[in-house]
């Protein structure tokens, strides 16, 4: 099992100035590099405290690349529907060169109606735009004099510069929160999987992990398929302190997503069946229930180690965990404590390899 950190800010100007948040996040990047964590990731969202401090994860990851030498740099995830594939392929290839081949490129469909409206993109086109965008980016990464004649974009012949350092291209991940079709399609295409246990029930997560592995094996890909699971994480020496702070952070994160998904109350899309229910997401499962289902890695070092052991038993010890350690609502020192306790007191006691 491998471990990295993911930044998903859920704060806005009333909570914390953006320069302060980025300074704190980059301090944690340095610590992740020092402590041997596998990767650093950043999300892409707009407008709301729910991720809105990160409209361009590549910009943040470029800053991270300049101060690190080992840790991998992941998008979590970029949205092909919102950018021309020539631009997206170029940005990611440039980052791969700046970092000397450390990019993991995760792509997502997006799901917030306000974001689609701002870009003037119909939500019903999201799946087709996603598929076309990813394939066009891969073509640009790998093919001189590339020509693309798609439904949404046409270009060529063009030869992308710079070409990615990694051959044939950076690892491609697909971020999927709910769609079984997306999971199966990712595996069939040879794209790795990135998903969020907090967005589904335990049986739903197991179904998606099993489906991905089955479809990957059926496709006969040469390399193993990778699965990245994202968990909010707060570790403190005292269990009660961890629960208090973790509960507060989960409450604020819930408030942020509730605001961001509010427009689903008046939106429907054939590409997102059932997503209207997201308008009520803030009234969902309690913090205590999420802890009981091991959807949150919150607790003392021993409690978090036990949660990790159960996760490994449920989903396999070949998975990679991306830990959300700093949404911005707690002190950066709480995140520093979390990372150091993980490295010093949790990972060494696991029954499998740690970070």
TrEMBL record:
Taxonomic superkingdom: Bacteria
Coiled-coil spans in chain: none
SUPFAM superfamilies to which the protein is assigned, alphabetical: Bacterial luciferase-like
InterPro entries the record matches: Bact_Lucif_Oxidored, Luciferase-like_dom, Luciferase-like_sf
The keyword Oxidoreductase belongs to this UniProt entry's keyword annotation: yes
UniProt GO cellular component terms: cytosol
Molecular-function annotations in GO: monooxygenase activity; oxidoreductase activity, acting on paired donors, with incorporation or reduction of molecular oxygen
A matching Pfam family: Bac_luciferase
The protein, known as: Alkanesulfonate monooxygenase SsuD/methylene tetrahydromethanopterin reductase-like flavin-dependent oxidoreductase (Luciferase family)
Organism: Saccharothrix variisporea
Keywords: Monooxygenase, Oxidoreductase
Flavoprotein among keywords: no
Domain called Luciferase-like: residue spans: 1-316
């Amino acid at each position: 099992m491998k471990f990295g950190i993911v930044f998903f800010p859920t704060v806005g100007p009333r909570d914390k100035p953006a320069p302060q948040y980025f300074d704190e996040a980059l301090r944690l990047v340095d610590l992740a590099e020092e402590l041997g964590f596998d990767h650093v990731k950043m999300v892409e969202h707009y407008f709301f405290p729910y991720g809105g401090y990160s409209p361009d994860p590549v910009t943040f990851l470029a800053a991270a690349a300049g101060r690190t030498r080992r840790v991998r740099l992941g998008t979590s995830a970029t949205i092909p529907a919102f950018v021309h594939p020539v631009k997206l392929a170029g940005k990611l290839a440039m980052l791969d060169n700046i970092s000397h081949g450390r990019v993991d490129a995760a792509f997502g469909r997006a799901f917030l109606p306000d974001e689609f409206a701002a870009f003037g993109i119909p939500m019903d086109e999201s799946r087709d735009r996603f598929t076309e965008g990813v394939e066009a980016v891969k073509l640009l990464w790998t093919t001189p004099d590339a020509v693309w004649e798609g439904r949404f974009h046409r270009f060529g012949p063009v030869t992308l510069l710079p070409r990615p350092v990694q051959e044939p291209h950076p690892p491609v991940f697909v971020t999927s929160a709910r769609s079984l079709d997306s999971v199966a399609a990712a595996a069939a295409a040879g794209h790795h999987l990135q998903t969020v246990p907090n967005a589904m029930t335990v049986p739903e997560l197991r179904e998606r992990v099993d489906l991905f592995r089955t479809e990957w094996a059926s496709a006969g890909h040469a390399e193993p398929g990778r699965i990245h699971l994202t968990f909010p994480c707060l570790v403190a020496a005292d269990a009660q302190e961890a629960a208090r702070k973790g509960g507060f952070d989960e409450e604020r994160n819930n408030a942020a997503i509730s605001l961001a998904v509010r427009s689903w109350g008046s939106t429907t899309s054939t590409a997102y069946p059932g997503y209207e229910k997201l308008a009520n997401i803030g009234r969902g499962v309690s913090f205590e229930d999420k802890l009981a289902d091991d959807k949150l890695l919150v607790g003392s070092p021993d409690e978090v180690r036990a949660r990790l052991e159960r996760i490994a038993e449920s989903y396999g010890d070949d998975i990679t965990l991306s830990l959300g350690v700093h949404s911005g609502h707690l002190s950066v020192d709480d995140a520093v404590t979390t990372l150091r306790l993980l490295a010093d007191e949790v990972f060494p006691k696991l029954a499998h390899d740690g970070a």
